[in-house]
Amino acid sequence: MVVFIIRRILLMIPVLLGATILCFVLVDVVNDPVQDKIFEISQSTGEPVPQSTIDALESSLYYDRGIPERYWIWLTGIGDTNGDIGLLQGKWGPSIEGSAMDIGYEISTRFWITLRLVLFATIASIGIAILAGVVSAVKQYSRTDYTLTFLGFLFLAMPIFWLGSLFKEGAVQLNKILGSTVFQTYGSGTTGFRGNGWEVFIDSLPFLIVPTLVLMLGGYAAISRYQRASMLEVMNSDYVRLARAKGVRNRTVMRRHALRTALIPVATFAPLALSGAMGGAMVTESIFGWRGLGVYSLDAINAGDTFAVMAYVLISGVVVLIGVLISDILYGVLDPRIRYE
Amino acid sequence: MKRHHIAAVAALACSALALTACGRGDDTTASSLDACIDDPAGCNSGARADGGEITWALDSSWASWNQNTSEGNNAYAAVALVGMWPATGQFNPEGEYIVNEGVFASAPTLVKEDPVTVEYTLQAGANWGDGTDISVDDFIYHWYATSGDASLCEGCDPANITRGSQVESITGDGSKVTVTYKESYHSAEWQYEEVLSEPAHVAEEQGFDWQNDPKDMAAAEDYFSKTVPTWSTGPFKIEDAKVGEHVIYVPNEDWAGETEVTLDKVTFRVIEGLDNITTALRNGEIDGASPFSVNAETVTQLQGAAGLEYQVAGGPSWEHIDLNTQSEFLSDPVLRQAVFTAIDVENIIGRTYAYVQSDIERKGNHLFRNGSEYYTDYLSATGQGTGDIELAYDMLDEAGYKLEDGVLHTPDGDPVELDFRYSESKENRRITGELVQSNLADLGIDVELKSIPDADLGSVLGEGEFDMIDFGWSSEPTFVAAASQYWETGSGSNFGGLSDPALDALIAEVNGTLDLDEAAVRANVAVQQVVQDAYSLPIVDTPVVVMVSDRLVNVRDNWASQQRAAYNIAEWGVAAE
Amino acid sequence: MSNTASPRLEAEAISSKERGQWEMVGRRFFRHRAAVVSLVIFILVVLFAYIGPFLWKWDYKIHSEIPSWAAPSLDHPFGTDKAGRDMLGAMMQATKQSLNVSLVVAIGSTVLGALYGAVAGFYRGWVDSLMMRFLDIMFVIPFLVITGALAGAIDTSVRWYHMAIILAVFGWTSIARAVRAEVLSLREKEFIEAARSAGGSDWHIIVKHLIPNTMSVIIVSVTLQIAFAILSETTLSFLGLGIQSPDTSLGLLIEAAGASAFNEHWYLFYIPGLMIILIALTINFIGDGLRDAMDPRQTMVRR
């Protein structure tokens, strides 16, 4: 088992390297953020930008070098650097936005913001999906089954950004009816709020409910179909039939035998869903003004901020790969038929 | 066109026009934002309750706390730091300059013309909010930081060095500080120069020997970029902040200004996107915002909402169409004049900006705003922007251009084709392009519309990849530097590559006087020359919106200040019952 | 009785052979009620987008005689927007361009993915593991980030075909995996052996024998790719990283409608949203129907 995990983690390294190289080249070739920055400054000051400032900007962002050298420096930090770059040394490189924007700090704080959003949404969507999937399977071909199946298809077909805009405006209207601001539409917590974990959580509730609902409905559809199929398969299996034949009560058969086995695929799917949802949170975050990872990557793309995009690519890559790994491990742990040597 | 930071504003803002509404607790005729058209500096004023909190939205973020540097030079940082920054002063909505009452006792005086020598008198007790008074060292620090001189600050990246590179020496004693400029300095706007930024004593406390070591100076600048300023020279001081996200102010008890501060707390938070700001305001999450754009959708949202006021007016930038004088066809001034004559500016305005601002006027002068004391319309008389196709065609005909099969040909027989470029997210610029396309089609010129990704405007301009382009310039009340920046041969911001020796001479004259009125007269001569060159066609002052909860008083927009509505933050308050 | 039953059975067996595999699939498909209804609706949507503009009096452009912000009426069934654009005309154009993108993506990414998967599965060994590592790399790269970065970097305005190419180039990985899995089992079959011994080149075997035999996987994935493409394209356009004017898209129409879901301009928000849902929903049902129809294990139970 340990050997298996180590082997898998080692295999991640070339994949991550490949992904970063590909992204670095694609993002870097198509952007020239220094020139845009200089134009912005000259428009804002109304005066020409001194050449020394342009040179300083280029060298501080490493734009005075070629792409291969920039990648090498970004990865290793070995060579002629200002000491703020080199992934292997734990430095993420400078951001176009400015020296006060530390990419490592941004990524780590935003990671928890996104995780908070995604964790609740995923847990809620898995819970509802299991319920809907089981009901659907037990009452196969009934009106309930058709309704739930249709709802699943409907949410699968619904663009998250449309649903998000609808719910956001709906929350505003609801507030108006209630006469107080119960739901907040922008941000992840009261501006500048400080407190312990529990206080922060309570403070964030008015901000959390609506976006969680949106993400939840987006994630629900796929899992419920999954659960229905696996429940049906188990219910038609021999050992469940045997249990029934022995005269075990239907409810007990369902709970003890069928559901327990039918949950295995969903349990193994959960880490994948979570890591997938972290990527999908971009839209929800941008609609509801959460300063999470998704919005960070969106801003970085718009600014042509290569090092920030790379940081996001790396983090999301690691999250996805770990999701896959945990899923595989869970599969082995939960399903007695599978053993890792 | 310099930046003007304001921290605090003189009590003068209770101008004569607004006296009825100012300072009278029993006032029952508190005016609203509707009054801003007639009374830009006194509208929406009223008696303030003691206490209260305001949350104000900024429509974008900033990435550095140090406005000296290129990365900190950001309009949103300027607003976010408005409560504490040691600005020299700023313009009010009527274009009057008001000196920062928390720092200076009086306006700076010109003690000598050659070389220019300016004396500043500090306010009694002007301090950094941490027990240290403002001193001559702080003036010197700001000079070094913006000098662009490696022997003073090695490895610094100041946003601009126009003033900093011209300082010869700074001396001072107690409340008097004297700045002596080099022989080459001749700006008529000497009294508006920024002279303070960061506290020198904090740099020293952090162990930076900035006076003697240029590398330490750069390190100090870097320190200020990354450090949330807990010191303050303004009416408020920062209680909590995160770069690019929020700033929370509480009153600064040590402030030397006289305006009474009533608010307990002011929060600036970033909400990106006009829709999101409007929604948050309607939902009661914020109390107001003065974003740098407006669209018809926002106006509809605001119209239908209860408990808030809004006003749309010309903002701090202006729209214009520039021609590339280095391009294949437009290098001919006759064609340029004909193109500008064929464009119907009133029609463009009627189908774009008039949707959000019904009283909008065509802009008639590149340097001075409509209604300013120096404003004269030199454009209309030339026929530029009238859409007079016949007049335009006559000009071309005279110069030997020919219309064949409905296509305009140069005297050499080449068909004339132009492109029109605009930022893709700016709907009004796209419609402008479509209308220019149809205007020029009447002249037999085929125009191709090519949009520009928002982040690439700078590179398209810088590399001159356009025939015609629609973009904006900032339109603050200062003008001396603007003329040379826009039009002087070889200037980095002369994107259309205009090279007119006569104009260069006129621009040099604008820079050659210390008298503001005289400089304005000379600037207007330069404007006339630019009109002759048919280089740049102004359209309008870009409309912007200010939206506030109606429980706030003394909050109004200010186009003349980079801080917009926050220019008079000391006076902001919650209406008394 | 037995005399009559036997020839009837034979007759059916013979005639079913004559019907062929695809006719069987068609029959099974047409028993899937939701899929058939969806197919009809989807065809209507396609006709709306491609034929509609020839029948309707307004196009998608701004006209000065069209009032701004008119509520839906007989003259303008979907209302008009601020600038004076008939929304029915605009919807036809937007639907057409969104469909253009999704059809090109569906076909492009399927061709790419099928070839890639077939080649990997056919050669196995180091070719396969190299190609699969590349798939892992593509899997790890966040889809919206990389497509958004490329679309955002296009020098002029992003047209629908730019978007289609970008989405196709990054959207083929799931098909490649599915096709490879099929090919891995197919390549051991006798008919491949036969083709090889008859001297067929590798390319010939892949294109003429392997890919046609994975057609059921491919057809299902084509339909699902359409739903995937329309959702990604509209999402990117909504985020400002997708199609730009003068082209339009359903995502852009929703973005332009802003927060008007509950005010008098509600129709600007709901109509394009419902169109996206309609397309994605019908496509999913059609895909589901096709999968059931082509699955040999499928019982003929109506669903």
3D structure, described in words:
Chain B: Keywords: Signal. Chain B: One of its GO terms (biological process) is peptide transport. The complex is a heterotrimer of chains A (341), B (577) and C (303). With 341 residues, chain A is mostly helical. Helices cover 75% and strands 1% of the residues of chain A. A two-stranded antiparallel ribbon of chain A has the order 1-2. In chain A, helix 5 packs antiparallel against helix 10 (250-288) and helix 6 (143-157) packs across helix 8. The longest helix of chain A has 39 residues, at 197-235. Chain A is globular. The mean pLDDT of chain A is 84. Mean pLDDT of chain B is 88; it is low at 1-29. Chain B contains 14 helices and 20 strands. Helices cover 23% and strands 20% of the residues of chain B. In chain B, the strands form 5 sheets. A 10-stranded mixed sheet of chain B has the order 8-9-10-1-11-18-12-17-15-16, with helices on both faces. Chain B has a 4-stranded antiparallel sheet with strand order 4-5-7-6, with helices on one face. In chain C, helix 1 (2-31) runs antiparallel to helix 13 (266-294), helix 4 runs antiparallel to helix 5 and helix 4 crosses helix 11. The longest helix of chain C has 37 residues, at 87-123. The model of chain C is unreliable at 1-17 and 298-303 (pLDDT under 50). The chains are: A mainly alpha (341), B alpha+beta (577), C mainly alpha (303). Chains A and B meet through helix 2, helix 3 and helix 7 of A and helix 4, strand 8, helix 5, helix 11 and strand 17 of B.
